[in-house]
Design brief:
mainly alpha; two-stranded antiparallel ribbon; 2 strands; about 0% strand; globular
Amino acid sequence: MSEAPFPVPPARRRRPRLGYAMAAAAAVLWGVNGSVSKTILSTGLSSERLAQLRSLGAAAGLFAVVAAASPGRLRPRRRELPYLVAFGVAGLAFVQWFYFLAIHRLDIGVALLIEYLAPLLVALWARFAQHELVRRRIWVALALALVGLTLIVDLFGGGRRLSTPGVVFALLGAVAYATYVLLAEHAVGDRDAVSLLAWGFLFASAFWAVVVPWWSFPPHALTRSTSLHGHLHALHLPVWALAVWMVVLGTIVPFFLLVSALRHLTATRAGIVAMLEPVAGALVAWAWLAEALGGVQLAGAAVVLAAIVLAQTAR
């Protein structure tokens, strides 16, 4: 560790392999968190309350870490404030809210497939709004990844009917996810990942305090026990234990890893690697919740992995 706990050098050398590893680890943790969140939602806690709990828990944990290690990093500059507010509300708060609303109305795999249109939105923004060169291999990798995700959720093989509100919420989640990545890429050059996320989740928590005031939070929601369902149905845990997992390993750690990865990767590349989340989510749901996983889904996972490798070769 260097002299400052959270150094922000003006010209940090990019290390793409480290960036890919961070983004992949974040995707795997989010994949696990999908089953954790679905288990919590099964207890009757609303999507808004779950997003509120996740935001406040993450803000408290991140502020405690930064305050103990380097309190000076918490001081925001005036020019940063609009970005921090937008990052917290339009990015972090909306990503969680729309995702939870979508999985109430759609299969989790379908919701993730639609939400992972976000990397395509990021690439389109980079090409047409910022006039950056997006190499042909990146476009091919995006197309392959979307095909792989479609295979994973078996979108056209199950005869399923899609909820129109669920699709709309998932599309809004894709826009919010793209906004989050682009804002993080902009801000991460001037501020370390931990303090950036601390402020982001604080503003997300402030947003939720207005939408669903804390004094109306159901006090018994976290003290009850719940079955883990699926292959683990015989096991029961208090909801607060699942909430701690969601906050620490499903929120603080993966968000930190993805924002840190943006020091070494462009937003487009990081978004493609994050497409590992549905792969991890499908595998965890198969092992834990006994959701089906057949040859088509495994082929889809292989296609997504091939897309990520292709994106990595596009120098």
